[in-house]
């Protein structure tokens, strides 16, 4: 492809035709892909977008690392439509998570974002032999040719409304039926419409799958258990340094653990009990300036983070520096 605009539209065409399709870029490239992402939302076409985050805005620091695109991935695109956001912590996780992203994209007919970063993507990793049996080969949500042939001729509706909001996809060229798809608002058949009633019904349909998607996403991992007084919240490639910093603090008899998010959005509402939140101090650790995970948890689940630690100079955290920052935040929270 000659640029990111053509890349995502070519990938959407391939997905529309029936293959699993994915594009990879950094934040600046994803900015160019946004109109295509909206097209995927409107046409309910599966697509996986890998964003290898680095500092922006604009060119920023193109050879350095950052975690500043989380809220961009959650909100990019005009209009409202479902999407999922995942973030691997290691190269091994990234291998399996790409497959997971394709599975979710096809099952729910949505864009799925996979957020890496320069630190994760440019690091060397030693991993055990990869377990190919963990990969999901199943293709979800496609109307098989035999099922299409069993229907009355030309009765297929690409956007037929139903309880889940997900209509089985008919691939172009399948006999006995006709496929209409449109980037304008459309009827159940796929024809352009400006009907207020149909518009509302189609928006509701596209959003209805979020609740099912929410329940399928994996919750965060909690170490060492759910009975600590303080937890560090993290996501993506910060896991390794967070693990090391937490172990340094636990060696000082500080009652602390960590909570790490991999399948981030849509945010599950049942993450923590009210009792847990009342009795626990939460400190977010993120490679950005504004604490984007902390902000997302507050917006989507009403979870208040007590303190935020951010690094946004283009460099990854180090364990010793992070441990010291956590000590300082702990002192501020406890008044000294």
Walk me through the structure:
The protein has three domains: 4-122, Thiamin diphosphate (ThDP)-binding fold, Pyr/PP domains (Rossmann fold, 3-Layer(aba) Sandwich), CATH 3.40.50; 145-216, no CATH class; 221-331, Rossmann fold, CATH 3.40.50.920. Helix content is 38%, strand content 15%. It has helices at residues 4-17, 27-32, 34-43, 70-75, 91-108, 118-121, 145-150, 196-216, 239-250, 274-279, 292-301, 319-333, and strands spanning 22-25, 47-53, 84-86, 111-117, 221-223, 230-235, 256-261, 263-265, 281-286, 307-310. Helix 1 packs parallel to helix 3 (34-43) and helix 9 (239-250) crosses helix 12 (319-333). The chain is elongated.
Describe the protein's topology.
Layout lengths: L3 H14 L4 E4 L1 H6 L1 H10 L3 E7 L16 H6 L8 E3 L4 H18 L2 E7 H4 L23 H6 L45 H21 L4 E3 L6 E6 L3 H12 L5 E6 L1 E3 L8 H6 L1 E6 L5 H10 L5 E4 L8 H15 L3
Parallel strand pairs: 1-2, 2-4, 3-4, 6-7, 6-9, 9-10
Antiparallel strand pairs: 3-8, 5-7
Helix pairs in contact: 1-3, 9-12
Task: Briefly characterize the structure.
By secondary structure, this protein is an alpha/beta fold.
């Amino acid at each position: 492809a000659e640029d990111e605009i053509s890349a995502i539209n070519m990938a959407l065409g391939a997905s529309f035709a029936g293959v699993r399709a994915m594009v990879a870029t950094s934040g600046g490239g994803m900015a160019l892909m946004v109109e295509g992402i909206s097209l995927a939302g409107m046409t309910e076409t599966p697509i996986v977008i890998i964003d290898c985050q680095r500092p922006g805005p604009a060119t920023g620091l193109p050879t350095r690392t950052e975690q500043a695109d989380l809220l961009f991935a959650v909100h990019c695109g005009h209009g409202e439509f479902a999407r999922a956001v995942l973030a691997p912590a290691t190269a091994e996780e990234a291998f399996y998570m790409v497959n997971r992203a394709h599975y979710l994209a096809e099952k729910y007919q949505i864009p799925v974002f996979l957020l890496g970063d320069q630190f994760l993507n440019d690091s060397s990793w030693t991993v055990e032999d990869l377990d190919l049996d963990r990969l999901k080969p199943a293709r979800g949500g496609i109307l098989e040719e035999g099922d299409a042939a069993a229907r009355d001729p030309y009765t297929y509706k690409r956007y037929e409304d139903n309880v889940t909001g997900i209509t089985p996809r008919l691939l172009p060229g399948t006999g006995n039926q006709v496929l209409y798809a449109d980037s304008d608002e459309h009827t159940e058949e796929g024809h352009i419409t400006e009907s207020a009633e149909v518009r509302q019904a189609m928006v509701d349909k596209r959003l209805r799958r979020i609740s099912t998607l929410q329940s399928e996403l994996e919750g965060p991992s909690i170490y060492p258990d759910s009975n600590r007084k303080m937890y560090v919240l993290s996501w993506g490639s910060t896991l390794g340094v967070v693990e090391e910093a937490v172990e340094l603090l636990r060696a000082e008899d500080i009652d602390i653990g960590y909570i790490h998010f991999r399948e981030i959005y849509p945010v599950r509402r049942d993450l923590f009990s009210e009792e847990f939140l009342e009795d626990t101090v939460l400190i977010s650790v993120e490679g950005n300036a504004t604490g984007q995970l902390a902000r997302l948890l507050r917006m989507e689940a009403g979870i208040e983070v007590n303190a935020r630690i951010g690094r946004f100079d283009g460099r990854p955290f180090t364990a010793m520096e992070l441990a010291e920052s956590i000590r300082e935040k702990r002192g501020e929270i406890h008044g000294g």
